[in-house]
From TrEMBL:
Gene this protein is translated from: rpiA
Keyword Isomerase: yes
Family assignment from sequence similarity: Belongs to the ribose 5-phosphate isomerase family.
Quaternary context: Homodimer.
Enzymatic class: isomerase
Species this protein is from: Planktothrix paucivesiculata PCC 9631
Pathway: Carbohydrate degradation; pentose phosphate pathway; D-ribose 5-phosphate from D-ribulose 5-phosphate (non-oxidative stage): step 1/1
One Gene Ontology MF term: ribose-5-phosphate isomerase activity
Database matches in Gene3D superfamilies: 3.30.70.260, 3.40.50.1360
Protein name in the entry: Ribose-5-phosphate isomerase A
Catalytic reaction equation(s): aldehydo-D-ribose 5-phosphate = D-ribulose 5-phosphate
Keywords, sorted A to Z: Isomerase
Annotated binding of substrate, by residue: 32-35, 89-92, 102-105, 129
Active-site residues, as the UniProt record annotates them: 111 (proton acceptor)
GO annotation (BP), single: pentose-phosphate shunt, non-oxidative branch
């Protein structure tokens, strides 16, 4: 691989390591984000070389759909398959119990559907994503139906959060998800019980889903650069 900055190198290595675990004849959940993008690229390269055959991808976002098409990965839908063998997806934070915060790409609702259905869900991250406690470096994304934005923000404040509407970059106004909804990013000073909070937030009328993924991940692959050498560490 060419000379890259360390974070890009970690993302490439970990994406490739995950892509190497995909087997012929399987249904593969394709995650969203810059790390998973490398996994999608390498899966496509394995298909083109003939090393991998007869796989179908289920994309978690418009981004994943575009990349899969670009790299020649045939796609299918949840209506057409009775299983997902493996899903590969990134994360914004990973705690020591393999719980995650996701949604940096505003795709966490579809990601949670696909990742939770997978027999094996592999998370691909660089080592900056490992945290002792969720919520310490990243705000918690909540996808909300537009007309419910204000009451949902008030309900999130009652739960102890500080909500802000996610705004677009190079786009005036808010981020609109692939599902046509809005994203509220919430700061919690003490996110002590992720399992409970995930349910509490999802119980607020108007919330589609939040970025807490509790008990969903099976394997975490962590990209690291040690003494200038890129490596991948596995957390089971
Ligand atoms: O949850 C996600 C998208 O909704 C991404 O997987 C997460 O934001 C990590 O992205 P990246 O690999 O670019 O750091």
């Amino acid at each position: 691989m060419s000379q890259q900055d360390p974070v890009t190198l970690m993302k490439q290595y970990v994406g490739k390591a995950a892509a190497d675990r995909v087997q012929s004849g399987t249904i593969v959940g394709l995650g969203t984000g810059s790390t998973t993008a490398y996994a999608i690229q390498y899966i496509g390269e394995r298909l083109q070389s003939g090393e991998l055959k007869d796989i179908k991808g289920i994309p978690t976002s418009f981004q994943a759909t575009v990349l899969a098409k670009q790299y020649g990965i045939p796609l299918t839908t949840l209506d057409e398959v009775d299983r997902i063998d493996i899903a590969i997806d990134g994360a914004d934070e990973v705690d020591p119990n393999k719980n995650l915060i996701k949604g940096g790409g505003a795709a966490h609702t579809r990601e949670k559907i696909v990742d939770s259905l997978a027999e094996v869900f592999i998370v691909v991250v660089d080592n900056s994503k490992l945290v002792d406690r969720l919520g310490s470096t990243f705000l918690l994304p909540v996808e909300v139906i537009p007309m419910a934005m204000t009451p949902v923000m008030k309900a999130l404040e009652k739960l102890g959060g500080k909500p802000t509407l996610r705004m677009g970059v190079k786009k005036a106004g808010p981020v609109v998800t692939d599902e046509g909804n809005l994203v509220i990013d919430v700061k919690f000073d003490a996110l002590e019980n992720p399992a409970e909070l995930e349910k509490e937030i999802n119980n607020i009328p108007g919330v589609l889903d939040n970025g807490l993924f509790v008990g969903v991940a099976d394997i975490i692959l962590v990209g690291e650069v040690i003494d200038g050498q890129a490596k991948v560490r596995e957390i089971l």
